Amino acid sequence: MTVFALLSVAPVREGDMAADVAAAIEALDDYDVAYETNPMATTIEAPDIDTLLAAVGAAHKAVEADRVSTVLKIDDKRTADHDASAKVESVEAELGRPARSTRIE
């Protein structure tokens, strides 16, 4: 079964965190997961919960700081196997359009 997660890992400090976030993202590359990063978090798709948790643990450990904050939300639907794109396509079918918009100023 496919397991999805929303992951946010960051050091607890002021200033630019791009290098720290990049280190966490690079740690995911050592695992059998697919991921997509956006400005707020990273969505991860893993074949099972053990792989997901191992990847998340590595991402957390990759941030070298005195204090690290990790937020994790897991969707583990055990009765069906869907990939992330199918979930988005389902919402877009309901909307009748892409599930995205450009910023209106």
TrEMBL record:
Quote the Pfam families the UniProt record gives.
Thiamine_BP
State the superkingdom. Answer: Archaea
Q: Where is this region: Disordered?
A: 79-105
- List each copy of the Thiamine-binding protein domain by range: 7-92
GO annotation, cellular component aspect:
cytosol
What the record says about family reads: Belongs to the UPF0045 family.
Query: What is the protein's given name?
Result: Thiamine-binding protein domain-containing protein
